[in-house]
Amino acid sequence: MSVLKQIGNTPLVESTNLVSKPNVKLFLKLEGNNPGGSVKDRPAYNMIAEAVKRGDIKKGGHIVEATSGNTGIALAYVASLFGINISLVMPENATIERVKTMRAYGAEVVLTSADKGIEGARDVAFNMRDQKGYLLLNQFENNDNWKAHYKTTGPEIWRDTNGTITHFVSAMGTTGTIMGNSTYLKEKNSNIQIIGAQPMDGSRIPGIRKWSPDYVPSIFDASKVDQIVEVSQDEAIAMTRRLAKEEGILAGMSSGGSVATALKLIETLDEGVVVAIICDRGDRYLSSSLFE
User: Domain holding 227: CATH number?
Assistant: First the structure.
């Protein structure tokens, strides 16, 4: 079977050490088990496959996209399997593992100013589209981003919890994960609560964003999120380390932010079935200070 057929159907495991309330269960969706190592495999495949289906891009064509890392890795290997060239634009402070992985898959990597962050990378990607005629997938405005989760992640969570899920928790970056899952899960049961994790002012958590007004993803619909919980960088780091030591789950900082948010929520619950997204694997952060 093709590698692409291995995207999705990731494990949903129950936390064994983080929750002490007998009537509250916390399940963790291990998206690092996707072939490219993150939740972004799903939208990367869907965005490229749908673009090919529409005729927006053909074999031998060229895609450009801004990324903070995981989407770029996923797009790099998916594009290579479709025979499509790709340029990925990302801030220069990205971990070296991410840059090398993208290049290993055959992508061109364009590094931009760390001071301007992902917003600056998005500006450069738009310029490359305009100047070179590349196809910009624009995950921040691309409905095929959130629809990937509507078609796959949401149904998997509903199936694997036997329809008992009461709360869904996710980090918010492009917001595709939370939008797609919210849309599907609310259709199944409108009482399911959707909680988004957002960084506190001054906190930098890769994969979680608090966008300035001009850059808020157009795919984001605030009515589909019941509650936004702010999480600090220190909380995200501490929980990421706890996940490794107490749950045997080596993940990135955005996953720590997601689970820290879930535990804040659980403090307010007497009963419930909470599902939190583990966004990626932690091995692509080993060159950083995350686990030091």
Answer: 3.40.50.1100
The pLDDT value recorded for residue 214 is 85
Q: Choose, from 40, 87, 170, 255, the residue flagged as catalytic.
A: 40
Q: Are residues 66 and 12 in the same domain?
A: no
Q: Is 40 part of the annotated catalytic residue set? A: yes
- Look up the pTM and report it: 0.95
158-192 confidence digits (pLDDT tens): 999 999 999 999 999 999 999 999 999 999 999 99
User: Binding site membership for pyridoxal 5'-phosphate: which residues?
Assistant: 70, 173-177, 254
Question: Tell me, what amino acid is at 129?
Answer: R
Annotated binding-site ranges: 70, 173-177, 254
User: Could you give phi then psi for residue 282, rounded to 5 degrees?
Assistant: -85, -10
- Candidates 21, 71, 10, 70; CA nearest to 46 is 71
CB 121 within 8 A of CB 67: yes
**In terms of domains, do 191 and 239 share one?**
yes
Catalytic annotation, pick one of 68, 203, 254, 255 = 254
Q: Which domain holds residue 76?
A: 40-136
